[in-house]
Amino acid sequence: MRFFLFLVGFGLSVVGGIMLITYLNLVPAGYTYRDYIWFIRSRPECYFLLVGLAISSLCIYHPTGMRKNNER
């Protein structure tokens, strides 16, 4: 289950990162970096990067509840 959630988080991170890079094409089209930041804040698919990183890091760093080998 954790591996599946990790893959979902990774996929969301990739989609969000690609969208951020894609929207960087607005800067040469005449947008300023301030306009770019305001634009990506209004786009829901750009939040996939943050959500995906949160899910992935939760899957990696959350304890599993398994006992350690040195406990007897």
Structure in words:
- This protein has 72 residues and is mainly alpha-helical.
- The chain has one domain (2-61).
- Helix content is 62%, strand content 0%.
- The mean pLDDT is 89.
Record the SSE blueprint.
Blueprint: H1 2-23, H2 33-41, H3 48-61
Uncertain regions: pLDDT < 50 for 5+ in a row? none
Rg, alpha carbons: 18 Å
| Class computed from helices, strands and strand pairing | mainly alpha
**What's the assembly state of these chains?**
single chain
Q: Into which percentage range does the β-strand content fall? A: under 5%
End-to-end distance, in Å? 28 Å
Report the order of strands and helices. Answer: HHH
Largest sheet: none
Q: Please state the overall shape, judged from the principal axes of the Cα atoms.
A: elongated
Mean pLDDT: 89
Short précis:
This protein is mainly alpha-helical and 72 residues long.
Which features characterize this protein?
mainly alpha, 72 residues
